[in-house]
Amino acid sequence: MTEKTLLMIKPDAVQRSLIGRIISRIEEKGLKIIGLQMLQLTESQVDQLYDIHVGKTFYPLLQSFILSGPIVAIGIQGKNAVKVIRKLAGITNSPEAEPGTIRGDYGLDLTKNIVHASDAVERAQYELSILFKKGELVEYELINKNWIK
């Protein structure tokens, strides 16, 4: 099933010049990038993205980290995109993530874990709406679509 999802490259990956390597993994997997932008999030955007964690003891550290520098928001579309991107990202705690995953290869710890990936189709729609305005996600066909169905 074709889905849309969000992968957010966090400030640690931006500062370590890993943007291109992460984007390459998405493209090499056969997923389509439908939106791409670098931005400095506001406190309100962070609170919306991480609304399920607001009020938890670790949240101030997470919020401070996400606000510490620019992020890159990537809208992605493809077959089972949510599950595929979550698998590419690896588990949240980077030291325990499998080698070959983004977090397993580049992540340093639980907070500085390189990327955020939506965990469900509904959540992806919500998160994409926070980072992309209406009309900023582009619909187009890949010419190699017959090879990656």
Task: List the domain count as a whole number.
Answer: 1
Determine the CATH superfamily: Nucleoside diphosphate kinase-like domain
What structural category do the secondary elements indicate? alpha+beta
- List how many beta strands DSSP finds: 4
* Main sheet makeup: 4 strands, antiparallel
Strand content: 15-25%
> In angstroms, what separates the terminal alpha carbons?
10 Å
Shape: globular
Mean pLDDT, rounded to whole units?
Answer: 95
CATH class: Alpha Beta
Any idea of the CATH topology?
Answer: Alpha-Beta Plaits
Helical region count? Answer: 7
- Helicity range: 25-40%
- Poorly predicted regions are none
Major sheet: arrangement of strands: 2-3-1-4
Using only C-alpha atoms, the radius of gyration works out to: 15 Å
If you had to describe this structure to a student in words, what would you say it looks like?
With 149 residues, the protein is an alpha+beta fold. It has one domain: Alpha-Beta Plaits (2-Layer Sandwich). Helices cover 38% and strands 19% of the residues. It is built from 7 helices and 4 strands, in the order E-H-H-E-H-H-E-H-H-E-H. Strands 2-3-1-4 form a 4-stranded antiparallel β-sheet, with helices on both faces. The protein is globular and about 45 Å long. The termini are close together.
